[in-house]
Here is the input.
Amino acid sequence: MIFIPGFVITILTFPGYVMKTVATKFWCDVLGVPVYDAKYFKGTILHEKIESAAQSIIVALSSFTVNTSLCAILLFPVAFLFFLGADPDGLEGTITALLAWVGISVGMHALPARSEIQFYLNGIPEDMRRGLSYNILRAAGALFALTDLLKRIWLDLVYAVAVGLAVPLAITSLYMAF
Amino acid sequence: LREATTGSWRRTEIFISYRRDDASGQAGRLYDQLVERFGEDSVFMDVDTIPPGEEFDGYIDDILRDCYMCIVVIGQRWSTERLHADGDFVRREIAIAFARKVRVIPALFDGAKMPEAEKLPAEITDLARCEAYDFGAGRTFRRQVTELLAQVDRAIEEAKQRQRERNREAFRGIALRPHQYPIWVLFVCALIALAVFASLTWVPTQVRALANLRRAEAAQSKGDNLTAISQFRAALSQVATSRDAKIGLATALFASNSKEAAMEAMNVLPETLDQSEMDQLKKVMPAEYQAFFKERKKP
Here is the structure.
């Protein structure tokens, strides 16, 4: 297994950390949750406790949805060029390489840590721990506990690449079908 | 920070103020009932809970500062005159409770009456206006306490809510301003937004190119060279660097057995070819072109 020091990954994938923090802060701001600190290079945010399960889902999964969407969009051209067997050079090649770097960086930080979801679960008062929203959050907690384990074998990178390849294929299939 | 905003760091929630020579027995029983309900850490009565060596006045001050409720036990011998004495602890307890906006509930025992406001020291005259709970005759003590506990529950919940709101308001002062980000973060976001825009404007052409390539490959596998050639050409017109389209078009052109088509195929082919591409072309490429190709394309 390849071991790369954390600071190297942080530097290489900093656009992903930035987008993760921005996405979480943005939704906290939209929902009126006060934010006390934001570490854009660590992807962490210190905000007011959220007692609503529905709001917790929005904030907890904000980086997942935003980073995944951005990853798919940014990797569109890269994936299409790959499927077309294209060999871009010059400016096109440079732009493609930049899009690939930013897209993979953003996609690698899409999966939240289990501890993040657990923080939101713990924040919900005992008497509000029921209903669809709470159970969705619990299911997300279980899912991301599994992905946490698999990140040791580079699941985050695999996820980014898979999102980047799967979405363009789906779009092309739909285009050809209709 | 979380604890501060939820109030969960609190230990003492209810303070019992009483005079030892007035209704200490009733105060003790009330304390036992409250402890049974809320836990030992949540109820303060000086006799049992002041740690050895603590200065009484300061300790009471600290405890009351964080309390939700102060129950003032008033019996027949609860003297208003003593409240005016210097350093009277009961007066001080009640005064701090009012100053801290702690809810005060007078608990009347043994037929005691509420003190009149004019007989009270200035700092605790509000006591006369508090809604008292009268432990009058005719009911069992446990039942009376149960009723009081319901009031205590409500009062504590209200106080906790108020405390949470106060804490939140206080913390809002140090919160970051909504929708404000450092300049460099905005710059990174702007670059990503630009990349998203570039990507989205690029995509329609690429989708069409990939669809043309797939259609061309399907037509080629069915032996429909004319359709394959037109679809490969369409794909190349959209993405000129598509190697798959170039090899596919050259293959289809060679397969059409025309000299012009073969010349076009030679012009379409990339500078170098790998083994699999060469193997694919050999099936349809005339021998003279293969030799020419080998000399020119693969030096």
Summary: The first strand of chain B starts at residue 14 and ends at 17. The mean pLDDT of chain B is 82.
